[in-house]
Amino acid sequence: MLLGLRSAEQLVLLPVFLWAWGTAAYGDWLRLLAAASFAALLDAGLSGYGASALHFARARGRQARHARLFSLVLTGAIACLALTLLVAAGVGALIAAGGAPAWLAPGTLALGEAGLAFALLAAAMPMPGLLAALAGPLRANGRHGAFLRGQVLVRLASMCGTAAVLGAGGGPAAAAAAMMLAHAALGALLLAATLRRHAPDVRWRPGWPEGREAARHLRRLPPFAMIAAAGVGTRHVPVVLLAMLGAGPAVLVTFAAARTLTGLLRQGVQLVAGSVAVETAQARAAQGSNASAALASQTLSRLWPLTGIGAGLLMGAGGLLLTVWTGGHAAPDPWLLAVLVLPVVLTVPFQIRSQGLAAANRARAIANAGIAHIGIGCIFALKLAGALPPAHLAAAVMAGFAAAEVLVYALSLPRKPPLAGAGGVAALAAVLFLAAWAAAYLAAGAASALIS
């Protein structure tokens, strides 16, 4: 549900941003948003570790330990928010004073507006993760759905509030304030109400760790911090890298629009692979590895051809869709579409295996691959950006990340469970991809002729 709402939010808000602000101001917003998103890492893994520790302590009936952990996580969350506010205010003041690095300095926005927008965005970034950590008791009680419903309301409030601000002529600072109020204030109020109803024994009392207790908990944070860094980096490092390489607002807007559109295909693959991964883990536990391998192979035989069709449709008609969707603000680049779409098709088997690792509580292996993907992707991207024409800067950068993604996941993820008939399924997916591409290309050409 949240995945679908997030996709809908992206589809709805991007053209509204462009309509309200234009390409130049929205390009500034994209750079500020990408930089502010790294504030989510200031919790140093507390969100992931806290959610896991609270869930297991309560699920095992260790009430005293759960109460102690909740107080410690609450203290950590307060400290994290205080640190985030200091960093957000400091960097925001630096931007407002004109002292930000060139890649972060606003090109169109007033310095004060840009600094305030950054501070508000950065202040809100850790909140979703910290609230999810404090919701650990709900998952153990079988009431996690209540928390998710609250998050749906938060997303809707953020989307509607931002759209209302944009429609009323509000600038980046007002839009950032609407997002912060939804994710921070409304999110916290809904969590408190949900815990009071479904876990009334939980007490909101901060606690301070003693002696070795602090060291024991701190040692467990790094793996969770790596998982968070892999997620944030995969999404926002390319934008930062493009900005550092001198990409203008038009390039950033085209990149953001193309990645949002093609991201629907990637999210669909991850959603299917994730749901099947749970069934695969259950089949392995109940019937052994042969049953889980058969289920994974069956999923591949259906998901890969469907992904090929979706990728072909995006390749053939993506340019027209981008033009219509963004009102002409995004300039279609077939090379950019190609390097965004093709990795999704090529990595379907790896998605099935990586989601299986997550279901088996081996997310650290995925995080290691994600960190390697970002590091190698940056190296490849810088090499390609210097070798290809500036007009294709976004395509060059994403080609580097695409090559790194395929390479890293092919080499690092386990080859079990074996996927029977993968070669034949790959050939079928390729044929369907080409057929869908040709059909969509012809249809888009005919539609363009009618429109013009």
UniProtKB/TrEMBL annotation:
A cellular component term, taken from the record's GO annotations: plasma membrane
Protein name: Polysaccharide biosynthesis protein
Domain of life (superkingdom): Bacteria
Signal peptide: none
Subcellular location: Cell membrane
InterPro entries: Poly_Biosynth_Transport
Membrane-topology descriptor: Multi-pass membrane protein
Keyword list, A-Z: Cell membrane, Membrane, Transmembrane, Transmembrane helix
Residue ranges of the TM segments: 37-57, 69-96, 116-140, 239-258, 303-328, 334-353, 365-385, 391-413, 425-451
